[in-house]
From TrEMBL:
One of its GO terms (molecular function) is L-lactate dehydrogenase (NAD+) activity. Pfam families: Ldh_1_C, Ldh_1_N, UEV. It comes from the Eukaryota. PROSITE patterns: UEV (PS51322). One of its GO terms (biological process) is protein transport. This is UEVLD enzyme.
Length: 466
């Protein structure tokens, strides 16, 4: 059922007037996650002048939220045509254009889309003619493309055209939000070489501005900018960086606005990447990780927040390199609630012979921790530093490193916490997110602080409308 049936029909009538050669039908489209939907679609040829005149075959699928969502566009090459992979076309024949990324009703129309498609194809022809022998060798690829454009998927075929690099080994991530933090995450992940492909979902209104425009100008390998949630399909990790930038009056209003943003984001990314790990960097991270968990209905292991990972790395670095306390640093963690209520803790009891030595060891650690916290006071967390931390976490997940990080995870059942709240705790991370929570040394003061944070976060969550 099309939500805006009359608007959709009116627009397709206009397309038919301008391009009478197009044929329309209703067929089943299969998305990358395997879900299916009956969608209107049309195919035909568009005239393109590139030295000579060419008729380029295309196939467009109209989503049920049209005209508020852009069509899904493909080339539809014949058996004697090869696809020229370029800026606007991938190896499957999927078409990517600025017009699609910046789609906004009523300004954007299918006629306008086709006009831009023609203009871009006249700059870079998307198809070329194959010899008979080339056509024979390309038959499997063309068959696969035909199935994709008709809404079918064939994983066996796909693994072959990827040269044996099947979907399981292809490390794709998506960063949601094109603000300073989102772009910092893209650059940090790209620099670390953690992912095979990075998709930046720019959800801002209007044309690409600032950093996203610069990313387009200085195109980075394996980085794609899109406004279409379907571009995030099959991501191994989805990083949430969006934050409300409006004029809310109270702190609760700001958080509720972030929750409202997430209500439109989490179901969409969860739909396209049902086995992904959600990595939340939005504020406040504990609350927004909880919101992501609730809205996605994912298992708790696959929804984590960046939490105190950056604080912990700084803490351990300070102990090791500035205070020369390397033995202490390997067991030191910053845990709890991000911000002023974070607390240092330890995961190794360092058993000693008697109570006097145990007390001396505890005092030594506390002094070192206090000195380190004093050194780090006022450092703050800039976008680029959080981006580096996010890249570190992403690398551990994608490469199944099973490294311990202090991340926001469901704390219920830990330290006598009975409410569903997320707090930073040391966790082993792997392909499926949290593998195991590392046991902390029992410290009544630390437990009291964690319980206090859990109580205040729970009270705040109770006031939100999910």
């Amino acid at each position: 059922q099309y939500k805006f049936r009359d608007l959709t029909i009116e627009e397709l009538k206009n397309v038919n007037k301008t391009y009478p050669n197009f044929t329309f039908s209703m067929n089943t489209y299969t998305f990358k996650d395997g879900s299916q939907k009956d969608l209107l679609n049309f195919s035909g040829t568009i005239p393109v002048k590139y030295g000579n005149s060419y008729n380029i075959p295309i196939h467009l699928w109209i989503l049920d939220s049209h005209p508020f969502a852009p069509p899904i566009c493909f080339l539809k090459p014949t058996v004697n045509m090869g696809i020229s992979v370029g800026k606007h076309v991938d190896a499957r024949g999927r078409i990517y254009l600025p017009y699609l990324q910046n789609w906004s009703h009523p300004k954007s129309t299918v006629i306008g889309l086709i006009k831009e498609m023609i203009a871009k194809f006249e700059e870079e022809l998307p198809l070329y003619s194959l010899s008979s022998s080339d056509a024979a060798r390309q038959s499997e690829l063309l068959s696969y493309i035909a199935k994709i454009t008709e809404g079918e998927t064939d994983m066996k075929s796909k693994s072959k055209i990827c040269g044996g690099k099947n979907e399981e080994c292809f490390k794709k991530i998506t960063v949601v939000g094109a603000g300073d933090l989102g772009i910092a995450c893209v650059l940090a992940v790209a620099a670390k070489g953690a992912a095979d492909k990075v998709v930046l979902l720019d959800l801002s209104e209007g044309a690409a501005k600032g950093g996203t425009m610069d990313l387009e100008i200085f195109a980075l390998p394996n980085v794609e900018i899109s406004k279409d949630f379907s571009a995030s399909a099959d991501s191994k990790v989805v990083i949430l960086t969006v934050n409300f930038l409006g004029n809310a009056q109270t702190y609760l209003d700001v958080i509720q606005s972030n929750v409202d943003l997430f209500r439109g984001i989490i179901p969409a990314v969860s739909h396209y990447s049902q086995n992904t790990v959600l990595l939340v960097a939005s504020h406040p991270v504990e609350v927004m990780t909880y919101v992501s968990w609730k809205l996605s209905a994912f298992p708790k292991s696959r929804v984590i927040g960046v939490g105190a990972n950056l604080d912990t790395e700084r803490f351990q670095y300070t102990l090791t390199n500035l205070l020369k306390a390397q033995v202490l640093a390997k067991d030191a963690w910053i845990i709890g609630e991000q911000g002023e209520d974070k607390v240092p803790s330890w995961t190794n009891c360092n058993l000693v012979a008697n109570q006097t030595e145990a007390m001396a060891a505890r005092n030594s650690r506390e002094k070192a921790a206090n000195r380190a916290m004093e050194v780090l006071k006022g450092k703050g967390q800039r976008s680029w530093s959080v981006g580096l931390s996010v890249a570190d976490l992403t690398d551990s997940i994608l490469k199944d490193k099973r490294k311990v990080h202090s991340v926001s995870t469901l704390a219920k059942g830990c330290c006598n916490i009975n409410s569903e709240v997320f707090l930073s705790l040391p966790c082993i991370l792997g392909t499926n997110g949290v593998i195991e929570m590392v046991k902390l040394e029992e410290d009544p003061l630390v437990q009291e602080k964690l319980q206090s944070s859990a109580g205040s976060i729970h009270d705040l969550q109770q006031q939100l409308k999910l």
